[in-house]
Design brief:
Length: 251
């Protein structure tokens, strides 16, 4: 999946690891291509239930590759990369084991659920080099209050993981020693959901806020009817009545 990323599948979980220490996992051509290819592969693999996006080293992602560290051209632009996460039919869980700046914040914010090590920091540092957090604002602003967004965009200040939770960019901040336990707890809960139901639930969060009320009720009513008539719902309801786990829950 590229020279700057690692892709592994185990027990229904596809783990993509950003792993290029010399650039602090900057969005170079090889890293972008590996990440994009990995997301595509996970989407097409029926054995994959959940995707985990994480990093090696002390930095999750340092954003744009300002040093031009590779001659390999990216095959995905940043909007495509973020859309692959947002539109993924499977839950994408962020295991943020290091600092985030610039485009790295966008990757973290695009994840459906994220847990970040409390020792790490996060920042929209773009203004300090004369640019702006333009593309990543599309995924970050829906999660933030306007006042918090203005303060962080304009100051370029790096904030703690705890503050990132407060402003809505990250779900949980835990000490590094507890990161994998926190991730495991999230995965255990998510994997109890039906695969199709998870995909639809993700789509609800992304789509409903942008519909007017009439269109929202029309679409959600049709969606609810389709789900209740599905084979997955029949199995889930039968399992509930029989006090057992549905067949999609890992044994």
């Amino acid at each position: 999946m590229g020279t700057h990323t690692r892709y592994e599948v185990s027990d229904g979980i596809a783990t993509m690891t950003l792993d290029h220490h010399p650039t602090r996992n900057a969005l170079s051509g090889p890293l972008v291509n590996g990440l994009g290819d990995g997301l595509q592969a996970a989407a097409e693999d029926d054995d994959v239930r959940v995707v985990v996006l994480t990093n090696a080293g002390s930095t999750f992602c340092a954003g744009a590759d300002l040093k031009g560290s590779s001659d390999e051209a990216p095959r995905y632009d940043l909007p495509e990369l973020l859309s692959l996460i947002l539109d993924h039919r499977k839950p994408v869980i962020g295991r943020i084991a290091g600092h985030c700046t610039g485009g790295g914040v966008g990757l973290a914010a695009a994840c459906d659920i994220s847990v970040m090590t409390s020792e790490a920091t996060l920042g929209f540092t773009e203004v300090r080099i004369g640019v702006a957090p333009a593309v990543i604002s599309v995924v970050c602003l829906p999660k933030m209050r306007q006042g918090d967004a203005l303060e962080l965009f304009l100051s370029g200040e790096k904030i703690s993981a705890q503050r990132a939770v407060q402003v809505g960019l990250i779900n949980h901040a835990v000490p590094a020693a507890e990161l994998d336990d926190a991730l495991g707890s999230i995965l255990d809960k998510v994997l109890r959901g039906g695969p199709e139901a998870l995909a639809v639930s993700k789509e609800l969060v992304r789509r409903v806020p942008f519909l007017n009320r009439s269109a929202a009720f029309e679409w959600t009513l049709a969606t609810s009817s389709e789900r209740f008539g599905s084979a997955e719902a029949a199995e889930g309801i039968a399992a509930f009545r029989e006090k057992r786990d549905p067949d999609w829950v890992p044994r």
